[in-house]
Amino acid sequence: MKRTISICLSAALLLFLAAFVMAEAINIHVGRLNTIPPSAHQQGPLETGKIHIGDLKVVPRLTAGYVYDDNVFLGNGSNSADEKESSDWILRLMPGLLLDCGFGPRGRFRVGYRGDLAYYDDQSKNDWQTHEGLFDLDYRSPGGLIVRAINVYTDAEDPYTSENEYQLGRKIKRWHNNLKTKVGFDFKNRFRVLAYYNYYKQDYDHKEDFTQDYDSNEFGAGVQMRLLPKTWGFIRYHYGERDYFSQREGVTEDNDSDFSWNRMNAGLTWEPGAKLSGELNVGYQWKDYDNKANKDGYIYDDRNTWVASTVISYKPALTRVLSLTMLRALREVGSITDEYFEDTGVGLSLQQVFLDKITLFVGTTLSQNDYNVFDDKRRKDDNYKVGLGFDYEIRDWLRTGLSYSYWRKDSNITKYDFTDNRFMAKLDIVY
Asked: What is the pLDDT at residue 19?
């Protein structure tokens, strides 16, 4: 077993380092993709892993799609030059490579790359590329030690930006790194004690986007207890800090919107193999700003509220998966303002296989963004997203598919409204 682990780690590390050096040579940073609004049509797994080097599995992938988008800049349709609705056809190329080394019951080690390249027929100046890289270590020793580390590093310029919806519809260059770790001990497979450390950093290329540059550190501790054969209950505490590090246009460390938070979470999680998977996670967060007011003298509003980060899938049969998502979070607008919004949403989706070859995807999400700052009135945005599509498996390594996604933002301040429809035909190769 030790020899197998050593071979897997060495081979995967050498391949990863080679890929990393090549990426650096062409100035690519890699990380989590966030390129299209969520829909039910996802890139699910095919029968993969035909290439083996000992216990190391090499999984190459290429997806090619052609998209029709009737509102590529997410404009509201007004006469403003920045808000006109403009349609286009877009070629999407999504290459990928995953190196997956299993340690048997002790876990696995994975490194990988995935790209998303978009080429517009008419609006070629809006062509963009997003690249992500993955490092994932999951190890459990026979004695009870638990180690998990996931790092995703991204170089992006897609027009769908970040979780706070900064400059939606505008091509914007940035990179971000997301690290999540935990170390703990399992007591006789009945009780677990865990320590957590999470780090996130994002950095935008242009000076006009400096308000989005920040990093955050989060420390935590938690316990888990087995409640049913494959069900665990948990309680977690986290403390974190966010620091905005680009200071321009009158913003200093004495007036930017740096803040810290305390958060308690509780919920349920399930082991692999159960009909339920994912995590039911709800909690409460206390948020405290480091400074009293921003550069214009507006007082920062410390906010305490409930939070949620729930993703649950139910698999009643081999051919059917039902999924539920629930989200509640506070989104900071930027370093220069006291503005934030409460992001609350819920989603449902269904994946169903017919005749062994056809997979149907249907899903919807509803969410509301409730802003704290008044202009003429307090801004509230309602978001409606629907996705549907199907895949047809031609071979165990090849499939084709069609999909449709709909996204409507309905705001009580009409300049933020938009509606977007997308149709996509794709070919997916995974070997």
From this structure: 37
